[in-house]
Design a protein that fits this description.
Chain A is an alpha+beta fold. The first copy, chain A, has 11 helices and 13 strands.
Chain lengths: 353, 353
Amino acid sequence: MLEEKGFSPTPLSKIGEFGLIETFKKSIKNTQKSTIKGIGDDAAVIKKDKNHYQLISTDTLVEGVHFDLVYTPLKHLGYKAVTVNLSDIFAMNGNPTHITVSLAINARMSIEAIDELYLGIMAACEQYNVDIIGGDTTSSLAENMISITVLGEVEKKKITYRDTAQENDLICVSGDLGAAYMGLQLLEREKSVFEKTNDAQPDFDGFDYLLRRFLKPEPRKDIIDFLNEQNVIPTSMIDISDGLSSELIHLGHLSKKGMVIYENKLPIDPQTVNAAEMFKINSTVCALNGGEDYELLFTIKQDDFNKIKENSNIHVIGHVTGNENQYQMVGAGDSIIELTAQGWNAFLSQNKN
Amino acid sequence: MLEEKGFSPTPLSKIGEFGLIETFKKSIKNTQKSTIKGIGDDAAVIKKDKNHYQLISTDTLVEGVHFDLVYTPLKHLGYKAVTVNLSDIFAMNGNPTHITVSLAINARMSIEAIDELYLGIMAACEQYNVDIIGGDTTSSLAENMISITVLGEVEKKKITYRDTAQENDLICVSGDLGAAYMGLQLLEREKSVFEKTNDAQPDFDGFDYLLRRFLKPEPRKDIIDFLNEQNVIPTSMIDISDGLSSELIHLGHLSKKGMVIYENKLPIDPQTVNAAEMFKINSTVCALNGGEDYELLFTIKQDDFNKIKENSNIHVIGHVTGNENQYQMVGAGDSIIELTAQGWNAFLSQNKN
């Protein structure tokens, strides 16, 4: 059917992953009464009982795409494969409870290597009190792959979606941004040095935080617990996996609102600034578009500001506006920079003008 | 760490997938109160409410290992990726409700190809009334891969495990066995003919059932519904993915019982017999070790026999004994054949003696 004469197949790159998901989302007809929310948020939502929802999310890491075994310790990889999934449950204001693990493993992986991978998976589960309840291990002819599905739970009244930000809400972000991206740049640089000279010792002095952010990210359970203690339910939330700019636009687009953030409010670690200088990259660009931060981006009512202001891990970076489709950053000298979803290149070229 | 001097890594083939799962099962400590059963059955079991359990299972299909795109239509592949997962939920005497789909797709796949794959996934979901609630699509540098996680539900009093077969129970199997394996042999033969001549038309005359069994297996929802209507709760159950012999030994081993089956009771379709003759393979061997049947193997109390005997899709093939670790088939002239788990080669060589 696909080989009919005159038929030219369309490459995936033409519509990309988001286009693909949008296409199928439209065709999917859900019929189970218990389905509250399907594709389109950090996790799917299923009715559990009168006062609780169950959350479910899945994330796959593919060798050569999401990780490079040249510089990724297997224990860290296992840990990260779990924590990036947990992050999706926290982003719904929920708590993860169980995971299943699917591994596709090639013949180059020894038992000892798989053991290291599993030790990392188990360490993350222990750290976040999550049970490993299922798994599937198959062989792979080429790359290794880890696919994890996480289940979680949330009180019905506390669930936080992406599409419910309201005008005048404050935009908050946890932790700091851009560090994981700089960690990756450092690792890639050392890899290429090593490939050329074959006996160089890696030089990561003063950048340990950046490496940790990339290799062993911790999801923000502490933030969810804090908000819960303070009786703050965010008005919308998403986790930052593809970069602040992209996630801000998700929240704005789905909530049909605009977003304004302030460059001088962006939380950036000094190590990130130093590394960015070294690589001659604008550290604001790292913070906006770096990705893999696994921090939480959320909005709260202005009335809740007093309840969160003492927490040094939460930063108010801007506010929600009524100007649908307008996503802006206020920079030095009150300059206005339009944020774009595929921010990296677009933003760079805009900055150069 | 893995590259220390004098360290020789152990290849995975040395302990195999089962060994691997056993190793990690021992190290996993579950702490969530809601976890009823983790790794070790067709699906994991979580408490849902007073009278219901939730079921969860995951299965991954890797290109080159589980499917060959030379002869697998993508729509069938999508369908099969779902139904092999649903089969695990039926094997717990439950009903599937939701799935999440993870795809890792390489650049050779066009949008139209992915569309076909998704059409198959959606067709299976519609057929079995299952909602698609989540997904993750990533790129892959080499093989394509589909990982599906299925959620299901079962009444607490009806859940059926693998380790609860009782002495004198009847051993039942649904449908027929060995057909998918012969379907695979036919497809592989035509592939090799095609590769040599490049213009041969495939010759599948009279074998359409075998191809369908391999390319588009249907899980046995009808059997679960029938047992439910008849108020029969199997005493143990497993789905047949790795071959009858292997699954029988699983039930026996976990239940600490023996198993006796009768060669002349094995349900084998005439097309399977014909194809086996053509390939000069013993059709009993196909039935015992073929795999990918996705039929249900279950045990029932003798008292329930009258309730199931009219169903032509259920076959009583033997009974459970008190002889732990003894798994036997009674063949022609009352000969006794010992069944082995890695049945294929072992059994073949035994037959030759």
